[in-house]
Amino acid sequence: MTDSIIDRNAAPHPVLDWRLAELEAHAIFVIREVAAECERPVLLFSGGKDSVVMLYLARKAFEPGVIPFPVMHIDTGHNFPEVIEFRDRLVAEFGVRLVVASVQEAIDRGLVSDPGPTGSRNRMQTVPLLHAIAEHRFDAAFGGARRDEDKARAKERVLSFRDSFGQWDPKNQRPELWRLYNARTLTGEHLRAFPLSDWTELDIWRYVAVNDIELPAMYYAHRREVVRRDSMLLATGRFTPAQPGEEAFEETVRYRTVGDMTCTGAVRSDATTPLEVLAEIEQSRITERGATRADDRFSEAAMEDRKREGYF
């Protein structure tokens, strides 16, 4: 198993070096192709590991120039504070414009229903996303989806077209033979571009390790107060207080994915480096979303339903 983990102090592993180089080259090709064919692209950026890798790839795609499009975060208002701090710091470092679409603003305007102070706002991100795309006239949105996340992700093409209502039809997609992409859209339509389509969670962490990419500290083992709920470890806080019958306790955990605090769980871990995380993931039989996203775990159709509505 040790041959499958990149050790920067060991001799280069030819198979892994080739795979990462090929994945990087294709992702950069997709980013450049969409930027060339579309007038107003935007990169969806949450501060999570996949979107961080996307930002690094975008910078590499256009260096020594600057990234020629903004980044956009769909803010649920229930984010982990350390992720928001990391997001703002990284965006400032890269010198890109940040657009924030707010779920709370959509609630205030009556566009979506308020689930309450402790309810999940994950599914509500669709409405502010579509409104922001229309308001800023974005014709392409880069997303960090990978095909190993769940079945719905695997159905999507590298370029995924959305109709004038922002909806996705998995049966109405364009062929992408020999990696030839057609980015044309009609008035009112837009596309989602997924340069990480062929990547896996392991590939992301190998890339992070090899390129020494900084991620939010919560991706690594740390002490945190949690409660056990629905077989998950949820961090306690303003939006996730301990409920009657629950007992808060401290645990050494890390996060495999970041999102709405009300539905994103932690996993027990002692991994403090990318290589240690890689070793952990290789032994796991559960996907990151299946293990740590409450709103995805209880329905296999949850993600596909949301994507049909316009979710990213």
Keywords:
single chain, 312 residues, alpha/beta, Rossmann fold, 2 domains, 11 helices, 10 strands
Explain what you see.
The chain is an alpha/beta fold. It has 2 domains: 2-204 and 301-309, 3-Layer(aba) Sandwich (Rossmann fold), CATH 3.40.50; 215-297, no CATH class. It contains 11 helices and 10 strands. The protein has helices at residues 14-37, 49-62, 81-94, 103-108, 126-136, 151-154, 201-211, 274-283, 288-292, 294-297, 302-309, and strands at 41-44, 71-75, 98-102, 140-142, 159-162, 190-193, 222-229, 232-235, 249-254, 267-268. The strands form 2 sheets. It has a 6-stranded mixed beta sheet with strand order 3-2-1-4-6-5, with helices on both faces. Helix 1 (14-37) crosses helix 2. The radius of gyration is 19 Å and the shape is globular.
Architecture blueprint of SSEs:
Layout (H helix, E strand, L loop, with lengths): L13 H24 L3 E4 L4 H14 L8 E5 L5 H14 L3 E5 H6 L17 H11 L3 E3 L8 H4 L4 E4 L27 E4 L7 H11 L10 E8 L2 E4 L13 E6 L12 E2 L5 H10 L4 H5 L1 H4 L4 H8 L3
Parallel strand pairs: 1-2, 1-4, 2-3, 4-6
Antiparallel strand pairs: 5-6, 7-8, 7-9, 9-10
